[in-house]
Specification:
heterotrimer; A alpha+beta; B mainly alpha; C mainly alpha; A: alpha+beta; six-stranded antiparallel β-sheet; 2 helices; 34% helix; elongated; C: mainly alpha; two-stranded antiparallel ribbon
């Protein structure tokens, strides 16, 4: 057998065998992987829209996805926005829940971040940052309170800054305000139906 | 503006060597002399730019439409290996002096984590075409800056009194750590 | 390389030819994920899986594959096993997959794997290639364990998530960040070098 023929045969065989093997592995694992991703998002939605039994994605663009949460009777409970903020080092991925009228933030939850450990990374912490996002009025844009005060002393549209992590805190706040503007605009354009179900 | 942010941050804030830990083998191996380092940097940047283009094309025109994302690793590394081979042949034919200057580094680039890292990260971050290219070029420049800096320091270190145990990899890594520390200061520069 | 018995074939990967401290290979992955012991263990196991399987296969086909296409063949073989490891982790250990991120696919350019395939597996019997791979893997895991323990203890005060240093200890955050990785590895390599010198002097 000539050398070039052998080269072609060997390469093609290796290619086919590995292709087949990978295809098999893909078939075996892809459902599990999709399920894991689903679970993660669903878990986050349930956290920020309490009482949710079923959720649907109703709008999607890059780094901005809107879900709606329903109870088991199909009544609309609220919306969740999964978006990203430009953090100190890299993107901060987070999700926050709104009531059906888009006037109140239920809570906020950070899904992924690469901020400085011990400082900016505290934005993932319930006590240091997340608790201040519970039940906030969002008719007007939110603002940061610095230096931090007791939770009871915060105005209904104020959030405490994490000490030593102003940049990360501000990144999230700016992003939330932008997201609020965006979803309100989408509602006006009819793309989101606050009675439940998709719009345009 | 967004493109500029990606460009600048891949050079300074998310430097491929000092933040993503990519390209350490060539970084340590070729940073002993400034001109060698610079040649390697240029070669890497060139291959990065090409890889950015080709990997994006393969990802968006073949892998994603046909749901073959799981073949990404195999596809990317084969593309990179072929590209490097082609670039080497091209340089050897068209410009022997250029080949003399930097041709020997080219085969090393195939296993340079930077290139594969570029393809993977651009895909992970879901950059579009211009973003991927800018990311690639920026990353290459960041690598070049890091490796030339390192070479400059190491040339000085040759004349310094380094303890026997630290010579070579030990002191090189510690110096890299200090440079990385300095670069950390760039974080948060771009809002 | 001649005359090494099977036991020596295995142990060389642990110390004399340790892929991290002596051969200085695979540093990209080592530095990136060594900020916590659990990540170090996961990466070590992933690399071991790919190294052992690839070495086995490369050695198996070493007589069939023509010289000119051997690098391309080895690349496909390694890339396939890396993909398998990556998919497996994403499916069954999602938090670890997330923590290791793009560094699992990057195992394909980890110099240790291609390096062993080219330098050893392609020139030795399947049995020897297997033992070499296991030895190198063990050496790699040990190096990763040491590096990640130092970084996790000093950087977070924990090991595997459990507090080992009391609250009096203010963690050295720098250890979890890139500079800490470089400096720690540099010191460890220097230490290994020093130990080797002392051993040689004593002989």
């Amino acid at each position: 057998m000539s050398l070039s023929r052998r080269m072609v045969i060997v390469l093609t065989s290796i290619g086919i065998i590995s292709g087949a093997l990978l295809m098999a592995v893909n078939l075996l694992t892809k459902d599990r992987i999709a399920y894991n991703k689903q679970k993660e998002i669903e878990g986050a939605i349930i956290r920020v829209i309490p009482g949710t039994r079923a959720s649907q994605k109703i709008y999607e663009e890059k780094d901005f996805t809107v879900y709606q949460g329903e109870d088991d009777q199909g009544n609309l409970l609220g919306f969740a926005i999964n978006t990203a903020a430009a953090g100190f080092q890299d993107k901060i991925l987070y999700i926050f829940g709104l009531n059906t009228q888009l006037t109140r933030i239920n809570s906020l939850y950070v899904l992924g971040q690469k901020e400085t450990p011990g400082l900016g990374a505290k934005i993932s912490d319930q006590r240091a940052f997340l608790q201040f996002w519970e039940s906030k009025d969002c008719d007007q844009p939110l603002s940061l309170r610095k230096p931090a005060v007791e939770k009871e002393q915060l105005a209904s549209s104020e959030v405490n800054t994490v000490t030593g992590a102003t940049v990360s805190s501000r990144a999230v706040l700016t992003s939330v305000n932008l997201a609020l503007e965006k979803i309100k605009k989408l509602k006006e354009e009819g793309k989101i139906n606050i009675e439940g179900g998709h719009g345009g | 503006m967004e493109l500029f942010v990606i460009f600048a941050s891949s050079i300074l804030i998310n430097n491929f060597v000092l933040y993503y830990f990519l390209g350490i083998c060539p970084f340590l191996g070729v940073s002993k002399k400034i001109d060698a380092a610079f040649s390697m940097g240029v070669a890497v940047t060139f291959v990065m730019a090409l890889t950015a283009v080709v990997s994006w094309a393969i990802n968006h025109w073949i892998l994603i439409p046909y749901k073959l994302e799981y073949l990404q690793i195999v596809a990317f590394i084969l593309v990179i290996a072929s590209l490097v081979q082609l670039v080497e042949m091209f340089i050897r034919k068209t410009s022997p002096p250029l080949y003399q200057a930097m041709g020997i580094y080219l085969p090393l680039i195939t296993v340079n984590c930077c290139i594969m890292g570029l393809a993977l990260l651009a895909s992970l971050k879901e950059y579009n075409f211009p973003e991927t290219v800018v990311f690639g070029v920026g990353a290459g420049i960041g690598f070049t800056i890091a490796i030339v800096l390192m070479a400059a320091i190491r040339e000085e270190l040759e004349m310094a009194d380094v303890p026997e145990t630290l010579k070579g990899a030990g002191i090189a890594l510690i110096v890299t750590g200090i440079i990385a520390l300095a670069f950390l200061g760039f974080s948060g520069m771009i809002k | 390389m001649a005359g090494r018995n099977l036991w020596q074939e295995f142990t060389k990967g642990l110390w004399l030819d340790n892929p991290v401290s002596r051969q200085l290979l695979g540093m990209c992955s080592t530095l990136a994920i060594s900020n916590a012991v659990i990540n170090g263990i996961a990466m070590g196991l992933a690399v071991s899986f790919v190294l052992i399987c690839s070495s086995l296969l490369v050695s198996l086909v070493r007589r069939i594959v023509p010289n000119q296409v051997r690098i391309a063949s080895y690349i496909v073989i390694v890339a396939s096993f890396v993909t398998i490891a990556d998919r497996f982790l994403a499916a069954f250990f999602p938090p670890i997959s997330k923590a290791l991120g793009p560094y699992v696919p990057l195992i394909v350019v980890n110099c240790i794997i291609l390096g062993r395939a080219e330098a050893f597996a392609s020139k030795n019997s399947v049995g020897r290639a297997l033992i070499d791979a296991v030895g190198m893997s063990a050496g790699y895991i040990i190096a990763l364990l040491i590096l990640s323990s130092v970084r996790e203890i000093l950087g977070s005060g924990t090991i595997l998530g459990y507090r080992v240093l009391g609250t009096w200890f203010e963690p050295w955050i720098i250890m979890i960040l890139p500079p800490g990785a470089f400096i720690t590895l540099g010191i460890l390599i220097a230490l290994a070098f020093q130990i080797e010198r002392k051993v040689k002097q004593r002989r």
